[in-house]
Amino acid sequence: MKVLCLSDVGELVFVFLLLFLLTTIKCLQTDWEGGCYPLTIHFSEDYPSKPPKCKFPPGFFHPNVYPSGTVCLSILNEDSGWRPAITVKQILVGIQDLLDQPNPADPAQTEGYHMFIQDVLEYRKRVRLQSKQYPPLV
């Protein structure tokens, strides 16, 4: 995973551009390869006692991303999965893994979930199409 850009946009909010390029071994030969996916991570004043909020752009297509763009990942769950010792790297790797290996037991958006469950080939096609909407910046 590469972090291309880290820019402060105020009050402990950082924008990470995750690149899934040929240099990213884990994403080689996946449907997500080739996209540069903007991810906003908001660290509240209670961090690390409370997890950061992680968001892709609204409407991002994935079974475990809410329509608002918020990522649904167990380690980001304040009530059960979060531990203050979890690092930003672990969060980013967890999100990267989640992209290619959705968790159907914890859906966050209807369209992505149903397509993943009912027609995985169409789901994969949609993911590849989405990767073209987020071209690499380098």
TrEMBL record:
Active site residues according to the UniProt entry: C72 (glycyl thioester intermediate)
UniProt-listed InterPro entries: Ub_conjugating_enzyme, UBC, UBQ-conjugating_AS, UBQ-conjugating_enzyme/RWD
GO BP field: protein sumoylation
PROSITE patterns assigned: UBC_1, UBC_2
Pfam family, one: UQ_con
Entry-linked PANTHER family: UBIQUITIN-CONJUGATING ENZYME E2
Family classification: Belongs to the ubiquitin-conjugating enzyme family.
UniProt name for this protein: Ubiquitin carrier protein
Species of provenance: Solanum tuberosum
